[in-house]
Amino acid sequence: MNYKTLFDSLTFICGPCVIESRDHTLKCAERIHSIFSKLGLPFVFKASFDKANRSSIHSFRGVGIESGLKILQEVKETFNVPVTSDIHLPDQAQPASEVLDILQIPAFLCRQTDLLVAAAKTGRIVNVKKGQFAAPIDMKNVVEKLHASGCEGVIITDRGTTFGYNNLITDLRAIPIIQSFGVPVCFDATHSLMLPGGATAQSGGQREFILPLAKGAVAAGANMVFLEAHDNPDKALSDSATQVPISELESLVKQLVKIADAR
What is the pLDDT of residues 109-168, one digit of tens each? Predict the structure, then answer.
C-alpha cells in the first residue's frame, strides 16, 4: 500500500467490527470488495482479531491473533486488498505486521509509548485513533513519537471526544488541526456515534447519524473515512448499534465521493 496516495483521493477503511468467524469475514469481504470495485475506489479491509476493550467481561472479543491473522491473510490474498486490525500489546506488533498493511492503535491506547514504538519499528503504516479523552493538538506528540521511532507512514483517526456521560461529540476543527502535523486524517464515522457504556453492559449508538457526520468530515477535508459494515448489524457480536448495513454501503459511499470531488 502506497502511503503517499492517501493524500491524493478519498480512501475508505471498511469491514465488520470484529472477526466473528472465517466464513462470515470472507462473506462480508466479498460483498464490500464488490462495492468498492464497482465504484473504482480504494479501500482497506478492516476486522479486529481481538476487541480487548469491550464494556463487559462477558462480551465477545474475537478469534484471537493467531486465527485472526490467518483469516485476514486469506482475505488479503483472495480479494487483493490491503488489510488492517487493532493491536493492543507491543509484542503483537511484529507478528501482526507480517500480515497487516496498516497497524491500528486503539483510541484508549493512543498514548502508550511502548506500543507506538513497537508498531513504528515494524515499518508498516500506523493508524492511531485519537483518544476520546484527547484534544486534537495532543496528537502532535503521538505523531512525533512515531516519527522519532522510524515510522514514515502515520495516519491519525478522529473518532469523537468525550462529552459528558455516555456520549461523544465530533469537532470538525480536529481535521485541519491534525493535518497541520503533516499527516492524513481519517474520520471514523461509526465509532464517533457510539454511546460508550450506554447500554449498561455494552455500548449503544446512533447509526442514523453516520451519513451526516461523514458528509461533514469529508467536506472539512478528511483524507479517509472509516466505516464498519456488517451484513446484519443488529445481530453483530460487537458494536451492533453503529455498523452500517452492507446493503446501504454503496449509496452512502457514493454521496461521500461526490462531496470529495466537489471540494
Answer: 999 999 999 999 999 999 999 999 999 999 999 999 999 999 999 999 999 999 888 788
> pLDDT value at position 110?
97
Q: C-alpha angle 41/47/50, rounded to 5°?
A: 160
Distances in whole angstroms, Cα of residue 20 to Cα of each of 51, 64, 69, 124: 11, 10, 13, 25
- Nearest alpha-carbon partner for 18 in 56, 57, 73, 59: 59
More confident residue, 4 or 144: 144
Cβ pair 225, 187 in contact under 8 A? yes
Alpha helices in the chain (DSSP H): 22-39, 65-79, 93-97, 113-120, 139-148, 174-179, 210-219, 246-262
Question: What letter represents residue 190's amino acid?
Answer: T
Q: In terms of residue numbers, what domain contains 71?
A: 3-262
CB 242 within 8 A of CB 190: yes
Q: What is the CATH number of the domain that holds 219?
A: 3.20.20.70
Cα(169)–Cα(163) distance, integer angstroms: 6
Cβ proximity of 65 and 83 under 8 Å: no
Provide CB contacts within 8 A for 35, sequence distance 6+.
Answer: 246, 249, 250, 253
How many domains does the structure of the chain reveal?
Answer: 1
209 DSSP 8-state letter: G
Determine the 3-state secondary structure of 12 from DSSP.
strand
